[in-house]
Specification:
The protein is an alpha/beta fold. The protein has 9 helices and 10 strands. The chain has a domain of 128 residues: P-loop containing nucleotide triphosphate hydrolases (Rossmann fold, 3-Layer(aba) Sandwich). Helix 3 runs parallel beside helix 5 and helix 4 crosses helix 5.
Length: 259
């Protein structure tokens, strides 16, 4: 596939995520083959691509769980792969990760699930401040009434919302969403899309949204980025990307047809 130059989009300020010429292989398997991406303050970028294409490897490099073979990864002004462990852990606290499975502790109530990251990561925080933070994020995701329930009592969409709330409670500057609408019906998916946009507006977060859901990408992404053959092949507004004549892009769209 031809590696076409990506369009240059002029935006004010430095990007909060800057990835340049990134490569990663596992043995003879080349996963990332020259990845370039910039994400700017307050911007949502939806990343689209087939399963197994390397999107999760990219995210793991972004948070320092894997080291690249070659290339530059700068997050919030820091070169990720060169950071000592202490500084890397501090950087990770500025990045929120919303897991596909929601990753709630089933033995804890919703209140306890939300309190946990504060108690673990914020030294000297008092009960009053914890209670205030818990209520604020529950209000943001619209589930205050669920505070004393257990995760097993929630629907799939409610679990996703609580997972996002638990991520938000540490006030991250960057949000990483992993398949946020996976396994949800269209109405609930729409509610999650609206929540992602609300988080962007209310908390001024910058986000990468990994998704197979074209409706999610269209509704939440200020830009979308097509990830194919180990690199981003097209980045831009949703309509511009899918007006492209590239056969792989057209095939991806047709397979995930939007009504």
């Amino acid at each position: 596939m031809e590696n076409k130059p990506l369009p240059v989009i002029e935006r004010p300020g430095e990007p909060v995520i800057f990835i340049k010429d990134l490569y990663k292989s596992f043995g003879e398997l080349d996963v990332l083959k020259g990845v370039d991406l910039s994400v700017y303050k307050g911007e949502n970028v939806a990343v689209l691509g087939k399963s197994g294409s390397g999107k999760s490897v990219l995210i793991r490099i972004l948070v320092g769980l894997l080291k690249p073979d070659k290339g530059e990864v700068v997050v919030l002004g820091q070169q990720v792969d060169t950071l000592p462990e202490k500084e890397l852990n501090a950087l990770r606290l500025r990045i929120g990760f919303s897991f596909q499975s929601s990753a709630l502790y089933d033995s804890m109530s919703i209140r306890q699930n939300l309190e946990f990251p504060l108690r673990m990561n914020v030294k000297g925080i008092g009960k009053q401040e914890i209670d205030k933070s818990v209520m604020e994020v529950l209000e943001a995701v619209g589930l205050i009434e669920k505070i004393d329930q257990m995760p097993a009592d929630l629907s799939g969409g409610q679990r996703k919302r609580i997972g996002i709330a638990r991520t938000l409670i540490l006030r991250p500057e960057i949000m990483l969403y992993d398949e946020p609408t996976s396994g949800l019906d269209p109405i609930t998916s729409g509610e999650i899309n609206n929540l992602i946009n609300l988080v962007q507006e209310k908390y001024n977060t910058s986000s990468i949204i990994i998704t197979h859901d074209l409706t999610c990408a269209r509704e939440t992404g200020d830009r979308v980025a097509m990830f194919m053959d180990g690199r981003f092949t097209n980045i831009g507004k949703f309509e511009d990307v899918f007006n492209d004549t590239d056969e792989q892009t057209k095939s991806f769209y047709n397979y995930n047809f939007i009504q």
